[in-house]
UniProtKB/TrEMBL annotation:
Active site: 78, 169, 171
Binding residues annotated for L-glutamine, in chain numbering: 46-48, 105, 133-134
Protein name: Pyridoxal 5'-phosphate synthase subunit PdxT
Superkingdom as given in the UniProt entry: Bacteria
Ranges annotated as spanning the membrane: none
Pfam families given in the database record: SNO (PF01174)
GO terms assigned for molecular function: glutaminase activity; pyridoxal 5'-phosphate synthase (glutamine hydrolysing) activity
């Protein structure tokens, strides 16, 4: 399995490390043509306004929408989750608008800008170590969305078909089980889809 990490801005090298620890190959995706070479795409944490701007500049918006429409797995973490959302709280325009959810940016406020915790995640047998940094929250999801974990009553991990999203940074710890779960999504897709 080859997993690409969108390398416009943000935590790219850390994701590539976790992908490799989880047993797949990780590559940095800088050009739209590379989407044809990968079995799954991670949109990393960073700054969603900047990632969105660079995606538009380099033609990634339509290319990633097509990539998703073909059923390929996409995993958005933190800013990447914001980029995937159909709706953003406030007057902000969505970026890719792929996942049926409403997201609030920087939802933890100043006192709790950054923290670590252990989360129960559906599909992972013991709690997952999660790092939250100026994290977004999923405020509301559509019927097609499966909620995989909550933190203090708020949704922080969700899946909708080929799309996976986390509010936190799973790539900043040695716990790579969410990457494993994503690689399994890519493997399952590979079994039903012959040729890229
Ligand atoms: N606060 C950032 C944003 O709104 C996301 C933070 C992160 O990715 N760690 O884009």
């Amino acid at each position: 399995m080859i997993i690409g990490v969108l390398a416009l801005q943000g935590a790219v090298a850390e994701h590539i490390r976790s992908i490799e620890l989880a047993g797949a190959s990780g590559i940095a995706v800088k050009r739209v043509e590379q989407l044809a070479e990968i079995d799954g795409l991670i949109i990393p944490g960073g700054e969603s306004t900047t990632i969105g701007k660079l995606m538009r500049k380099y033609g990634f918006v339509d290319a990633i929408r097509d990539y998703s429409k073909q059923g390929n797995p996409i995993f958005g973490t933190c800013a990447g989750l914001i980029v995937l959302a159909e709706r953003l709280e406030g007057s902000e325009e969505p970026h890719l608008g792929l996942m049926d959810m409403t997201v609030a940016r920087n939802a933890f406020g100043r006192q709790r800008e950054s923290f670590e915790t252990d989360l129960d995640v559906k599909g992972i047998d013991t709690p997952l170590r999660a790092v939250f940094i100026r994290a977004p929250l999923i405020k509301e999801v559509g019927e097609e969305v499966d909620v995989l974990s909550m933190y203090k009553g708020e949704i922080v991990t969700a899946k909708q078909g080929n799309l996976l999203a986390s509010s936190y940074h799973p790539e900043l710890t040695d716990d790579y089980r969410l990457h494993e779960l994503f690689i399994r999504m890519a493997q399952e897709r590979g079994q039903t889809h012959v040729g890229r």
